[in-house]
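Entry 0007
Protein: FAD synthase
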Amino acid sequence: NNRTITNISISFNGGKDCLVLLILYLAVIYDTIISVNKRGYNSNNNNHLEAIDSVYINYEETFPELESFIKETETKYNLQSEKFDKIQLKEGFENYLKLKPNKNYILIGIRRSDFRAETSQNLEFIQRTDNNWPEFNKVSPLLNWNNTDIWMFLLSLDIKYCELYNNGFTSLGGTNSTVPNPVLEKSSFESWPP
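Output (structure tokens):
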């Protein structure tokens, strides 16, 4: 029943963490629909999954492979994405909430172990924004996951991810700020996945 998720959105930028978060979110939605149907509450055959609201905020020049993967994922998983280019996160969320003022919860794919997320050490799983940010609840289910957890999830379930990771990228930032690690290229391994 999609009425239960009308105030929720997911921040999706095509990265591995956001992809895991998306798959988990879809599993919860599916489980909820099945549970509702088993209890007989939804007899009007209105149990198809409608579009999932998402937001994509990008402040750097991105790789074409990433843009292509994001579009493919939006189509595959029925994401209704609002995209904001060349702006910082705070402004992007401000603009998004002007378009979607009913969104009280936004799922964020952040991990404490992510070296780029110094501020994540003080985050809680559900936390209201502060410091003059637009008001919403940040929901961060992956806080205690590490890089190995992320990759084990994606590889064990054979979930398609952005091909840039196979070229040695460990994160998918902008074209001017992100470089691959040649040691991590998929071609450098005898068998992949491990």
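Curator remark: The CA atoms of residues 51 and 75 lie 10 Å apart. The longest helix spans residues 16-39.
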